[in-house]
Amino acid sequence: MFESSNTDAAAVPVIIMHGIFGSKQNWRSICRSLTNKTKRRIYAVDARNHGDSPHTAIHSSEGMSADVLAYMKSIYSQKACLIGHSMGGRTMMYFALTNPQLTERLIAVDISPISIPRTFAGMNKVFTAMLKISVPPNLSLGEGRKLVMNQMKEATAYPDMVDFIMPNLRKKPDTGEFYWACNVHALRDSLPNFEKFKSLISTLPPYSGPTIFICGKNSVFVSDDHWPQILKHFPNAEIQWLDAGHMVHFEQTELFVRAVADFLNK
């Protein structure tokens, strides 16, 4: 949780969920900035199978939405503003569609409910490379990450993703063994679930609360062609394009924070 001393206890809090391979740590500075600009309590959470959260065999938007609901109960929150990037964005979309009475407003960051661009083959190469890493236990964490980074960039179709994955590589202090903090097997096995998201939400009533999609102009995750279909599910949605790729909140942090704060303060 990120909360400054001058937050408004009566204001509806904000819950943030990261994308695949991410963690709540990715959002630390953004959480602080948003707290200062909105006076709301800001909670960044680790999705299941990521960061400090438990590993589970099931990894789905439905499961992670249930986790968000459980978290809301744990902080005694009757309602929340939801922010999600990529995988987290779809989780928050599903939550809003199935729990509209608990959702004050929704912010989806560079993700569409209609389709995702990366193919099974491409993503499977990433997971296969992660499962095949070989790191001598005598290497330091920094040395191990450098070695694995080179191994993976040679083996995957998405070398740009490797840098983002690397913080997941950890080292056990007692044995020197290297391991992934994220649950690679569960994430790999969950790929078909995310391909079926459009079908999953097809029969759900639309979420008519305030919604904004903040997307990267240079990203391939959201297309103008998706917008008419998106509005069927989120009829009060607006969209804002920033000069960035998929990692909008990293590449244009100041503009991103401003867009989110303006939306939350409406």
UniProtKB/TrEMBL annotation:
It comes from the Eukaryota. GO terms for cellular component: mitochondrion. SUPFAM superfamilies: alpha/beta-Hydrolases. One of its GO terms (molecular function) is carboxylic ester hydrolase activity. InterPro entries: AB_hydrolase_1, AB_hydrolase_fold. Residues 13-251 form the AB hydrolase-1 domain. Transmembrane segments: none annotated. It catalyses: 1-octadecanoyl-2-(5Z,8Z,11Z,14Z-eicosatetraenoyl)-sn-glycerol + H2O = 2-(5Z,8Z,11Z,14Z-eicosatetraenoyl)-glycerol + octadecanoate + H(+); 1-octadecanoyl-2-(9Z-octadecenoyl)-sn-glycerol + H2O = 2-(9Z-octadecenoyl)-glycerol + octadecanoate + H(+); 1-octadecanoyl-2-(4Z,7Z,10Z,13Z,16Z,19Z-docosahexaenoyl)-sn-glycerol + H2O = 2-(4Z,7Z,10Z,13Z,16Z,19Z-docosahexaenoyl)-glycerol + octadecanoate + H(+); a 1,2-diacyl-sn-glycerol + H2O = a 2-acylglycerol + a fatty acid + H(+). Its EC number is 3.1.1.116. Keywords: Hydrolase. Belongs to the AB hydrolase superfamily. This is sn-1-specific diacylglycerol lipase ABHD11. It comes from Drosophila lebanonensis. The gene is LOC115629330.
